[in-house]
Amino acid sequence: MSNNNSAKKRERQNITRRMRNRAVKSEVRTAIKNFDKCVLAGDKAAAEVAMKESFKLLDSATSKGILHRNTSSRKKSRIYAALAKLN
User: Fold this and answer.
1) C-alpha–C-alpha distance, residues 13 and 38, integer Å
2) How far apart are CA 45 and CA 51, in angstroms?
3) Which of 38, 51, 63, 70 could, after both became Cys, cross-link 46 (CB 3.0–4.6 A)?
């Protein structure tokens, strides 16, 4: 347990930020899962829409510093590859 006020405030801020970051990461994972479902179903049009949504969320998380840019790039690359196989 922290003793001084600044450390207590940092703990409160860390909890708030952790919850916010977890929510953003969850949205990203959900979008990628939706894309994977579209690919498994073989629905190219829906997969392209899901891809755009996934990319938007990945870029947003990267710009906020929640995901590393290499992580985002790797996930995008795998999404592109899965969509290319669908053709």
Assistant:
1) 38
2) 10
3) 38
Cα–Cα distance measured from residue 1 to residue 10, given in angstroms and rounded to the nearest whole number: 12
> What is the spatial distance between Cα 38 and Cα 43, in angstroms, rounded to a whole number?
5
Whether the model clears a pTM of 0.85, i.e. scores above it, the answer is yes
Domain boundaries, the chain: 5-86
CATH number of 5-86: 1.20.58.110
Q: Please work out, in degrees rounded to the nearest 5, the angle formed at the alpha carbon of residue 54 by the alpha carbons of 51 and 59.
A: 125
DSSP 76: H
Tokens of 64: 């906020």
Q: Report the C-alpha gap between 55 and 77 in whole angstroms.
A: 10
Of 26, 19, 29, whose CA–CA distance to 37 is shortest?
29
Fill in the DSSP letter of residue 33. Answer: H
Mean pLDDT by 10 residues, the chain (87 residues): 92 98 98 98 96 98 98 98 92
